[in-house]
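Anyone able to model this chain together with NAP?
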Amino acid sequence: MNISKKTLLITGANRGIGRALVDEALRRGAARVYAGVRNDFHHADARVTPLRLDVTDAAQVAHAVSRVGQLDVLVNNAAIALFDDLSDLDQIQKLLEVNVLGTMRVTQAFVPLLKHSRGAIVANLSLAAIAPVPATPGYSASKAALANMIQSLRALLGREGVSVHAAYIGPTDTDMSRGIEVQKAAPETTAQGIYDGLAEGQEDIFPDPMSRTVADAWRQSVVKMLESQFRVYLPPAKAG
Ligand SMILES: NC(=O)c1ccc[n+]([C@@H]2O[C@H](COP(=O)([O-])OP(=O)(O)OC[C@H]3O[C@@H](n4cnc5c(N)ncnc54)[C@H](OP(=O)(O)O)[C@@H]3O)[C@@H](O)[C@H]2O)c1
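re: yes, here you go
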């Protein structure tokens, strides 16, 4: 999927990687970018349409669908991260509400438009979905749960012409990774890597220098082998 002349919706678009994804989409010639935000947001480029979109708010999600007439690419980027130790179930619930259920709520709401355009879904996951970062175990588990659902969605929606991509992002220099002292990619680098992977049709995208170090091992892993094998259990999609 080359995003030139395409219509995209990016959640969590006001800052960090989401904001970089907006600007990179414009640079690559996107026709329209819907910027899902929770605050007042203005972009100088007239191709950007801000959309009030808290992913935990079903009414806002439904309203966003009604405003977006046509969509080629949904980028599920919005997320929260917390330092925790798995002792506070309220924190775990909050992480799951936003990162898993919020992402699934937005995804399911836009599936009809994406089926119509035979479009693409990108989920911004994390290397923490593959192996937990023990300082952020709740966040890691939320990304692992989402990664698992994305694998199923890939099979389910692939039958209907929608491609589903997972971006396994490594440390990137945003508010989310503040205070974590590791080498980080610039958000612009990560955004470019995500669109490059999408253009190459990669189902799993490793968009930054750190994530790329595990890409080959992941693609040859037992997880990918079983993902492919388990697809045979899926009945064909119902006609209509
Ligand atoms: N930065 C990293 O090192 C890193 C590494 C791996 C994966 N990732 C993933 O990359 C994505 C972007 O992360 P980031 O680093 O850019 O994070 P960030 O700078 O913290 O930005 C998070 C974005 O998500 C939005 N958001 C949070 N809760 C929301 C909700 N309930 N509804 C709608 N929007 C909501 C925020 O909006 P507000 O401004 O309104 O709060 C903000 O726009 C996330 O999925 C993250 O898990 C990041």
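Residues 11-12, 14-18, 38-39, 53-56, 77-80, 98, 102, 124, 126, 169, 171-172, 174-177 surround NAP (CB under 6 Å).
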